[in-house]
Every structure is written in C-alpha cells, then in structure tokens.
Amino acid sequence: MNNSSTLASLRQDYRQQSLSETDVSRDPVQQFQVWLQHALDSDILEPNAMTLATATRDGQPSARVVLLKGIQDNGFVFYTNYDSRKGRQIQDNPFGCLVFMWKELERQVRIEGVLEKTSGADSDAYFATRPYESQVGAWSSPQSKVIENRAVLEKNVSDYKAKFQPDHIRRPDHWGGYVFKTNTGGVLAGPYR
Fold it and tell me: What are phi and psi of 117, to 5 degrees?
C-alpha cells in the first residue's frame, strides 16, 4: 500500500463534542473564552498555540504557529518581531486568519479579522514579564533573515548579554504585540475534519 492509500484510509469518528446554537453564547469571543478554558482545564500541551495565516499585498499566503498571550477588546494578542516575514506581511496586508486546534477536545476554532499593533505600553508590559533569555533573544535573532551560520546568532546573544543585565533590558523597537481584531461574525468553530 502506498502512502496515498494509507492516508486516504485514515478515519476518525468525532463524537466527543457537539455544536448547537442552544449551547453557545451569542458573543463569539465570550464563547471562545469558554472553550479556551476547557482546553486549559484539559492539560493540553500549549492550548494557546494558534496557526496565524497572513498574506502578501498580492495575496500569496503563508502560515505559522504563534502563541496567544491575551484577549482584549474582542481581539487576540500575540507578540513577535515586527521585521519578521509575518510582520512585513501584516504591514502590507492587515487581513488574516487564526486557527486553534485542540485535538484532544475534537474542536477547532477559526477566526478571521484584521491585525493591528498593540500599544507600546502593552508591548513593554508583556516584554517585562518574559524570561531574561527570551528578552535577549528578541534583540539577538534577526527573525526571517538568512544568517551566515549559528556562530552569528551565538555572538549576538553574547553581545546583548554583555550590554543588558537582567532586570535592565528594554524592549527593542522591532519587537512587540499585535491584536487580531474580529467582528462578531468572524469566529467559526466545530469539530475538525
């Protein structure tokens, strides 16, 4: 049997969760928070992991996994390097999509909306909560750029550790948060297929 035949024969009967209008909140963000709490309570590894899809100005898509770090003003917050590929795409085309997939709960949530930068104050506050190594990493990593070798990254880390002592490191200008804003019709959920 070749791989295609093997993949085509994979089947799963999804019966764990149901989705009925009578069982969910009319506010999709509020309902998402209920489901997120279910995921948190289920000891799922990284229940805040979400696939973020963005696109270039001319519509060429790309996707990657980022971590949800907050929910505010009907928006979903994550942090990243603004100079990364996703940051450049968001600058050129602010529309995107998020997908949460909680396999253990047989549930996925898809969210469509627009991305905006969070305030500098919000980004500063979150950056201050990150471990020192992660703070140094935000300075050291030229995300989405080709480097000559690993030694370049290791030298960056060493240089920034010499420059910044723990508890005395500020957020780099090229790093911060985005809030993924949706309208009430932009959150869709169900079992994954």
Answer: -70, 145
Confidence of residue 15 (pLDDT cuts 50, 70, 90): low
The string of DSSP letters for the chain reads: --HHHHHHH------S----GGGS-SSHHHHHHHHHHHHHHTT-SSTTEEEEEEE-TT--EEEEEEE--EEETTEEEEEEETTSHHHHHHHH--EEEEEEEEGGGTEEEEEEEEEEEPPHHHHHHHHHHS-HHHHHHHHH--TTS--S-HHHHHHHHHHHHHH--TT--PPPTTEEEEEEE--TTSEEEE---
Element (H, E) at 34: helix 28-41
Question: What is the token pair recorded at 181?
Answer: 């804003």
Quote the pTM value. Answer: 0.83
Per residue in 156-186, pLDDT (tens digit) is: 788 889 999 888 899 999 999 999 998 655 5
